[in-house]
Amino acid sequence: MSREPNTVFIGRKPVMSYVLAVMTLFSAGNEEVTLRARGQAITTAIDVEEITRRRFMENMSVNEIHIGTEELPMEEGGTRAVSTIEIILSAEARPREEAKATQEPKASATEVPK
Amino acid sequence: MSREPNTVFIGRKPVMSYVLAVMTLFSAGNEEVTLRARGQAITTAIDVEEITRRRFMENMSVNEIHIGTEELPMEEGGTRAVSTIEIILSAEARPREEAKATQEPKASATEVPK
Predict the structure, then answer these.
(1) B54-86: per-residue pLDDT in tens?
(2) Whole-number Å distance between alpha carbons of B76 and A33
(3) Angle, to 10 degrees, between the axis of helix A41-51 and the axis of helix B41-51?
(4) Cβ distance B42 to B70 under 8 Å?
(5) What is the CATH number for A73?
(6) Shortest CB distance from A62 goes to which of B39, B40, B67?
(7) Closest CA to A14 of A54, A35, A50, A41
(8) What percent of chain A has pLDDT over 70?
(9) Which domain holds residue B53?
(10) Which member of A40, A54, A68 has the closest CB to residue B40?
């Protein structure tokens, strides 16, 4: 796993610290945020997505999920296969902003001046 | 999670017992097999998919992945949210069978008899 922008690498920290990281990246204007995890942290990655979407960002959705395997070198030599997950999240325009946009009257050629 | 056909519920058994269950369902003629897991077993579900595909069934692929949340009742009352995963696997026609099929000459109206 290399360092990439807009990517949150899930490890052993408390779930809420990753939820905060995701929300910070979206608040900074990113349209997509990627979660990456391997081994037992995979469950945490899914917890992060579910908690973020259900509690904090209902406008967020899961775009893609990729699963795979990484070969990790072992101290005693050889490699060990470990499962990985990549969850690509995207945030749509917030419903409130959408509603506001449709309420704003458009400047129209047929508009009758009072 | 209700009992459904072609579904393997992933729990705390060794990974290989679930790999065997998946291969048994495909061998029985099912075109799709679903893995379901929640909580820490989610990582095992992904291990099962990766091991089955990489070691035993290269013609198998992941069709869909759904993640979600289930509210589990707690002994002391109330509920606890737990993340879930559903992985839908499908097996295409085996490459060997495909190759065999294309090698077989078709009976054709333009075929010239010897």
Answers:
(1) 999 999 999 999 999 999 999 999 999 999 999
(2) 37
(3) 120
(4) no
(5) 3.30.110.20
(6) B67
(7) A41
(8) 78
(9) 7-91
(10) A40
